[in-house]
Automatic annotation (TrEMBL):
InterPro entries: MliC_sf. Residues 1-18 form the signal peptide. SUPFAM superfamilies: YdhA-like. Residues 27-44 have a biased composition (Low complexity). The lineage of its organism: Bacteria, Pseudomonadati, Pseudomonadota, Gammaproteobacteria, Lysobacterales. Keywords: Signal. This is C-type lysozyme inhibitor domain-containing protein. The keyword Signal applies. Residues 24-45 are annotated as: Disordered. The keyword Signal applies. It comes from the Bacteria.
Amino acid sequence: MTTRHAFFAAVSLSMVLAACQPPAPSAEAPGNAATDDAADGTAAQSGFTETAAEAPVVRYQCGELAVGARFTADGDSVELAYSGQRRTLAGDGADYVDDAGNVFRSGAPASLALAGEPTRECVPTEHVSPWEAAAARGVAFRALGQEPGWLVEIGDGEQPNLSAQLDYGERRIELADAAPLDDGSGFHGETGDGTEVRLEIARESCADPMSGERFEAAARLRVGDREYHGCGAYLED
């Protein structure tokens, strides 16, 4: 078995065991290994924080998307968290819509139709999205890409921690104090061995080339003479 296949196999197995039935291939494949120790059922910011005063989060696997749903007590709205994003849809306790044309149906089976995309059937799951788990750990921005699989996470603050897994997890880098770019579009710094690292972020729609999963930002990560392209989300928005 090649390193690439072993990397994806290990990550995919954890997702399959967590869901009630195997989901479609996900854009999460390069990143789940980084969040296994944090997938404890809680999330914050672009995910959810579970407290006694709030309604519980209902989790679904909708195709390749891990979705968290929190319904209001009167059932007139639901807040959805997926792919590092949050959306509030209004409804009647069964069907929920928003002005962008997104539709969520909470029946059996539940379904999610994001604007311009095919309807996804949703099955209950206990699986917590890596995006929610990252938000719970204080990650401010997260991005991932394919071919080769890679993942980067940025902490909070003016000079945050930057950590990345590259080349299907074969290589890891860490910057303790990443400096912001002059135009505020990302971060840069050097690793302990002097390798230059630069992350550029553009607030524009971005789709994962393998799964089609959509995100709010495009990301370009340069490590030395290697360049990685992918999609991401601001988890503190």
